[in-house]
Amino acid sequence: MTDYTKEYKEVAERFALLGEVQTICPYGEGHINVTYLVTTDRKRYIMQKMNTSVFPDSEKLMKNICAVTEYLKARGAETLSVVPTKEGDPFLKGDANWRVYDFIEDTVTYQTAPNEEVFSNSGRAFGEFQNDLSGFDASVLFDIIPKFHDTPKRFRDFKAALAADVCGRAKDCEKEISFLLAHEETYGAAVEGLADGTLPLRVTHNDTKLNNILMDAKTNRARAVIDLDTVMPGSMIFDFGDSIRFGASTAAEDERDLSKVHFSLKLFRAYAEGYCSAVKGSITPREKELLPYGAYLMTAECGMRFLADYLAGDTYFANKYEEHNLVRARTQLKLAEEMKNSFQEMAKIISEIID
Ligand code: ADP
Ligand code: GN1
Ligand code: MG
After folding, report:
1. Per-residue model confidence (pLDDT) at position 3
2. Coil, strand or helix: which one is 82?
């Protein structure tokens, strides 16, 4: 692996780090920020080049993160610790913007669920995260990406990318395009429920992938929910659904061999048991009813976002090769279809877990 120490040492040294910087290496599998592991002779840190096209206002973003992490710490939860610059600012402003967190030691992240127990633990942790934030004053939060899980808007964006077809790629994905167009009537129920009050607006994480949670390396119990960039008002079914999208698949989000990609009801049950054990005191009947739909919705939405980005020339998600976003879109749409065909089984599982 290339050592980035020389290139980024000057950046790292602008932060109030303990010790002398020894190495800086790329780290993790996030699609949005560029993440590095910084090692000094005393401690390890996560340093991120912030994605300012996705999050144009770093000031507001870091205000949100500081407010949420302070609140969580006061409740005794383990969470991200922002390391300020030597001037005391929460991020470093320049041609690029950078931030640093303490590295949370003795933890691991998973790209696929290694077993049902780990996935269930992650469900409990995201449920507890939801509970921890239930008393948090949402009015102090900036709406950092407005309409983040407004699926009808995501669908309109997808159709605009399709109409423009700037790279001439639409011909490579006719099947995927047809799937998304054919399901238009299924995208609206969550935003409609939030608008008419039948779904409560809560403070949610909005990006609850399994790799956005740090698990204890020894016990596999969840230690900290991370990637707090998208904490905003939203619906519980977004958080539940996005976890199922990523973690209840039998393969990675970017598996090329679709015969390996299936929606696992066993993993769904495991996650639902963990999540519902945490939220059973606050979940409403309508939320409970819409948990299976949330899984389908977040998966179809993510599929349309990956496909829109592929059509637009890969401007949003970090990718490792030319067709990466198309490969990702294909896994999501296959999962969405299987989920749609499993609504009854999912509902039965939920009713067995909470009555
Ligand atoms: P992105 O927004 O690009 O997804 P993340 O903030 O999720 O970036 O970070 C990418 C990865 O880096 C995470 O999936 C996790 O593996 C690792 N990571 C991030 N923050 C920490 C931390 N404080 N301690 C340990 N690992 C971390
Ligand atoms: C991005 O930041 P990361 O890699 O955890 C994206 C999510 C998508 C996800 C798909 C801010 O998540 O919305 O569901 O990729 N985050 C943002 O893997 O757009
Ligand atoms: Mg992440």
Report:
1. 81
2. strand
Quick check: 211 pLDDT over 80?
A: yes
Q: How far is the CA of 278 from the centre of ligand 3 (A)?
A: 23
Task: For residue 318, give the ligand 2 atom closest to its CA.
Answer: 4
Q: How far away, in angstroms, is 197 Cα from ligand 3 center?
A: 30
Residue 7 has pLDDT above 90, yes or no: no
Domains of the chain: 3-105 (3.30.200.20), 116-354 (3.90.1200.10)
- Digit-coded pLDDT (tens) for 84-115: 999 999 999 999 999 999 999 999 999 999 99
Asked if 66 and 90 count as a contact pair (C-beta separation under 8 A), the reply is yes
Residues in the chain: 355
Task: List all residues 6 or more positions away from 7 whose beta carbon is below 8 Å from its beta carbon.
Answer: 24
**Per-residue pLDDT at 187 exceeds 90:** yes
Could you please report the per-residue DSSP string of 26-49? E-S--SSSEEEEEEESS-EEEEEE
The string of pLDDT tens digits covering residues 115-152 is 999 999 999 999 999 999 999 999 999 999 999 999 99
**Which residue(s) pair with 25 in the sheet?**
37
The reply to whether ligand 2 has any atom less than 6 angstroms from the CB of 324 is: no
- Closest-CA residue, ligand 2 atom 13, reads 207
Single-letter amino acid, residue 110: Y
